Amino acid sequence: MTNSCIIKSLNISEKKGTIKTPRKEIMLNLLGVEGDAHAGKWHRQVSLLAEESILSFEGELGRKIGFGEFAENITTSGFAIHKTLPFDKFITENVELEVTQIGKKCHGTNCEIFQQTGNCVMPKEGIFCRVIKPGKLTENDVLTYIPKVFSIKVITLSDRASEGIYEDKSGPLIEKLSKDWFKNEGYSCETSRVVIPDEKTQFENELQLAVEAGFDIIYTTGSTGIGPRDIAPEIVRHFMDLEIPGIMDHIRLKYGAEKPNALLSRSVAGVKSKTLVFSLPGSTKAVNEYLTEIHKILMHAFLMLNGIDSH
Q1: In the beta sheet, which residues pair with residue 202?
Q2: Which of 33, 37, 86, 164 is the most exposed place for a label (fewest CB within 10 A)?
Q3: What is the CATH number of domain 149-305?
Q4: Would you state the torsion angle of the CA atoms of residues 294, 149, 158, 254, taken in this order, to the nearest 10 degrees?
Q5: Are strands 89-91 and 96-102 parallel, antiparallel or unpaired?
Q6: From the CB of residue 160, how many other CB atoms can be counted at a distance below 10 Å?
């Protein structure tokens, strides 16, 4: 996939659901396109559609389709924009856009576009963005594509592993399972791992450094039981801004029904700033079980955390 596309047309309409008319340039603010009906405090501020999608649709409709007829703000060329993913970005020297949604629900006969064209390609191949950096866009500007790379910090808490008495296996497993999952979702993932003893101050420092570095996820593993050196739950709970109790309660009950010892885990989950934090048990079996369930809610959690309504 090429890493850039050219702006073929910039289009505005004053009313939603209507065909947009081309402009030579547009101004973007933090609400979207100035003067456009779709601007506002939501995640679908700016719509994009590729010229290639329009041309392929012309054959189905049997006529020429003008830029803006499908209500796209930006018509692009040279890039399969519908293959992007939420949190990917398009940037110019002046502007930064973040992808928030691929496609949308079609309003059918209630939409003027559908009435005039008989169909619409936007629900399938249009994308929506929000403005991260406002500025001016001009016809023939080049949009550079920056795919999202998720970053994960893995902190293993173990006195013995930190002393080299035995090998940390849970930390590397979290890295592998995370990279495999993100790859399956179409994203790249980078990880950083550290092994430390069950020491309060050192653990608190690692958590704070991870948030300051902007990691998307912090996974801790170990020190979640009821032993005298098990410190993770209290420290993580105090560190977080918000707790997410449901996911850990679900995991304990699901696996505890077959293996009651799993109910002794005090694992916690929550949010610190824009970082998701999960404190997992130290066994590789538990890591497998916990990540199996966490991965089911992970992308929705990121969307919610970033104010994207995916319903």
Answers
A1: none
A2: 164
A3: 3.40.980.10
A4: 10
A5: antiparallel
A6: 12
CATH superfamily of 4-146: PK beta-barrel domain-like (2.40.33.20)
Rg value, the chain, Cα: 24
Q: Where are the domains of the chain?
A: 4-146, 149-305
Q: Which two tokens stand for residue 145?
A: 């594509």
Q: Which residue, chain included where needed, has tokens 């850039």?
A: 4
CB 223 within 8 A of CB 248: no
Write out the H or E segment, with its range, that includes residue 53.
helix 51-61
C-alpha distances (whole Å) from 163 to each of 157, 213, 224, 263 are: 11, 26, 19, 29
Strand order in the sheet with 25-29: 32-33, 25-29, 135-138
Contact by Cβ (8 Å): 33, 71:
no
Give me the amino acid identity at 192: S
**pLDDT per residue of the chain (311 residues) written in tens, 0 to 9:** 459 999 999 999 988 878 899 999 999 999 999 999 999 999 999 999 999 998 887 777 778 889 998 889 999 999 999 999 999 999 999 999 999 999 876 555 455 555 555 556 676 899 999 999 999 999 999 999 999 999 999 999 999 999 999 999 999 999 999 999 999 999 999 999 999 999 999 999 999 999 999 999 999 999 999 999 999 999 999 999 999 999 999 999 999 988 899 899 999 999 999 999 999 999 999 999 999 999 999 999 999 999 998 65
Give CA 41 to chain center in angstroms.
Answer: 18
pTM of the model: 0.90
